[in-house]
Design goal:
This protein is an alpha+beta fold and 343 residues long. It has two domains: 102 residues, Phosphorylase Kinase, domain 1, CATH 3.30.200.20; 220 residues, Aminoglycoside 3'-phosphotransferase, Chain: A, domain 2. It is built from twelve helices and nine strands. The strands form three sheets. Strands 1-2-3-5-4 form a five-stranded antiparallel sheet, with helices on both faces. Strands 6-9 form a two-stranded antiparallel sheet. A two-stranded antiparallel sheet has the order 7-8. A hairpin with a 2-residue loop joins strand 7 and strand 8. The longest helix has 21 residues. The relative contact order is 0.12.
């Protein structure tokens, strides 16, 4: 949304944001453009800034994430997010916002601001029971295209050798933290983390979630690639499917639509897998999925809309059973959850 009133800069942004934009040549010395903090993220400072060239979005990574647990991560992940967007744009130009500038010293980059009026957030649509399988299919096809284009690329692998960052912001807070909360499942959850860490196939986004996907007129637009890593693309698939399952607790009236989106996204993605046997990737995704499912109630980043203990126990019941007898197919996870939510 556009700001109202006279142009201004927010006090908390004065010490770093405006000086950086001046260094990048986007703001003239003495200017005070309208600056609006944006909400929704836990890992970065994000601002909308209205410039002469139009509104832009400025993103800077934080060393400590804004969650209840003490969760810290290297700020250099901002540079890898910037690099992921560059690579993704080379594969699917409309899959990311236009990148305008980077200030590596300040740990930030600037991208074109996309108006929610014509780029609604997929999460908002799902919250409002707008579960369109066509959107899920488009997300799958765009995601698998990026994976396919980077699979087996030694140069990309070297550029995104971010194993330590991925461990600190994905494997540890999700799978390993959950292992500590469920000691009887520690061996299987630790094993899933180890398998994921050791699998290097393609360029991974790492946070393919409806909160990070805009539904644009030219297809889905991916945001927040701070977890970018050359590793296991099955993680991206499982991570996104996980959110579609959890949404059944957020908006129960749209459960059938969420499960339809799950089916279409899984099938469309697997149709595009060419760098390995689709069955092998599906097996890794199917086994990761219940671990990620359980992590969203008992890991370091619990999903904000599942707060009722009864709902949490439904997630635990299904996830724990699947982790005790790991599935090979995504439909096994889907069917177990469908049975639970229809009971």
């Amino acid at each position: 949304m556009a700001g109202s009133g006279p142009p201004r800069a927010t006090p908390e942004s004065d010490d770093w944001l405006i000086p950086s934009l001046i260094r990048l040549g986007l703001v003239r010395p003495g200017e005070t453009p309208f600056v609006q903090p944006l909400t929704g993220g836990v890992s970065s400072d994000i601002y909308r800034v209205d410039l002469a060239v139009g509104p832009v979005c400025v993103k800077r990574a934080l060393p400590r994430l804004k969650v209840a647990a003490d969760w810290r991560a290297p700020v250099e992940r901002n540079a890898y997010e910037f690099a992921w967007m560059r690579v993704a744009a080379g594969v699917e130009p409309d899959a990311v916002p236009e990148i305008l500038a980077e200030d590596a010293a300040a740990g930030l980059f600037v991208m074109r601001f996309l108006d929610p009026a014509d780029h609604p957030l997929w999460k908002a649509q799902l919250r409002d029971a707008n579960a369109d399988p066509a959107t899920a299919e488009a997300v799958a096809r765009r995601l698998v295209a990026i994976h396919a284009a980077t699979a087996g690329d030694a140069g990309i692998a070297a550029r995104f050798a971010t194993d330590a960052i991925f461990h600190s912001i994905r494997l540890e807070p999700y799978l390993l933290a959950t292992a500590r909360a469920h000691p009887d499942l520690a061996a299987v959850l630790t094993g899933l983390a180890e398998t994921t860490a050791a699998t290097r196939k393609a360029l991974v986004h790492g946070d393919v979630s409806p909160k990070n996907i805009l539904v644009g007129p030219r297809g889905p637009v991916f945001l927040d690639a701070e977890c970018a890593w050359y590793g296991d693309p099955a993680f991206d698939l499982a991570f996104c499917l996980n959110h579609l399952l959890l949404k059944c607790l957020w908006t129960p009236s749209a459960t059938a639509g969420f499960l339809a989106c799950f089916d279409v996204l899984a099938a469309s993605y697997l149709e595009g897998v060419r760098w390995e046997l689709p069955e092998a990737l599906e097996r890794r995704a199917a086994r990761l999925l219940p671990g990620l499912f359980l992590a969203r109630v008992d890991g370091k980043s619990p999903v904000e809309y599942v707060t009722d203990e009864g709902q949490k126990n439904r997630v635990r019941r299904v996830a724990r059973a699947l982790l005790a007898d790991l599935p090979d197919r995504l439909q096994a996870v889907r069917q177990a959850w469908s049975k639970e939510v229809s009971a």
